[in-house]
């Protein structure tokens, strides 16, 4: 087997969601994160997740790089279908606290549901690759712009997409 992506955890699953970490010093761009957060909030400083993309499978090829893209991926993992109202807010509280570090006026998450008692779940992933429960590790995952998630399926020809994004460096590809 020839590895074309160095320093990347790879799986044998047909749906490969990979957390990739660039080499070098981790970087957190506080200003970019704050602007990213503010762009998602309504006029009451709440983030309504109802119309956000929170389903991640084998396609389309997706690279999640921004703070809010990674928050939505985290939401999909932690708050999938069938999540109760209590569990929904419990699972997202560590993320809400991290958001408040960048935007103190953040007033929490909301979801439009007809049944207030049950099924606050939104989205999901077909392969859970992270199980972060420690707030510091959640913060690292969300804020470190040297860390990103690649969602793809191995039955698709995504080589060109990976090349364009820069995951594959042409100088290191072997034929």
Annotation keywords:
175 residues, alpha/beta, 7 strands
Written account of the structure:
The model has no long low-confidence stretch (mean pLDDT 78). The protein is built from five helices and seven strands; from the N terminus they run E-H-E-E-E-H-H-E-E-H-E-H. By secondary structure, it is of the alpha/beta class.
| Mean pLDDT score | 78
Q: So what's the overall shape?
A: globular
Helix content: 25-40%
Strand content: 5-15%
Rg value:
17 Å
**Count of the domains:** 1
Write the layout of secondary structure elements.
Blueprint: E1 15-21, H1 30-38, E2 47-48, E3 55-56, E4 62-64, H2 67-78, H3 85-102, E5 109-110, E6 124-125, H4 135-143, E7 147-153, H5 159-165
Parallel strand pairs: 2-5, 3-6
Antiparallel strand pairs: 1-7, 4-7
Quick summary of this structure?
The chain has 175 residues and is α/β, with parallel strands linked by helices. Helices cover 31% and strands 14% of the residues. It has five helices and seven strands; from the N terminus they run E-H-E-E-E-H-H-E-E-H-E-H.
């Amino acid at each position: 087997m020839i590895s074309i992506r160095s320093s990347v955890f790879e799986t044998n699953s047909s749906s490969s969601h990979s957390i990739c970490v660039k080499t070098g010093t981790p970087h957190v761009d506080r200003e970019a994160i704050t602007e990213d957060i503010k762009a998602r909030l309504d006029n009451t400083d709440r983030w309504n997740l109802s119309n956000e993309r929170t389903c991640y499978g084998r396609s389309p090829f997706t690279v999640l790089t921004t703070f809010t893209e990674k928050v939505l991926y985290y939401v999909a993992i932690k708050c999938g279908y069938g999540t109760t109202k209590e569990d929904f807010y419990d699972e997202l509280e560590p993320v809400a606290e991290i958001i408040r570090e960048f935007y103190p006026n953040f007033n929490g998450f909301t979801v439009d549901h007809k049944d207030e008692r049950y099924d606050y779940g939104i989205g999901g992933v077909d392969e859970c690759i992270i199980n972060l429960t420690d707030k510091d590790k959640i913060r690292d995952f969300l804020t470190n712009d040297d860390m990103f998630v690649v969602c793809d399926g191995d039955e698709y020809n995504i080589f060109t997409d990976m090349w364009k994004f820069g995951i594959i460096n042409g100088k290191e590809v072997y034929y």
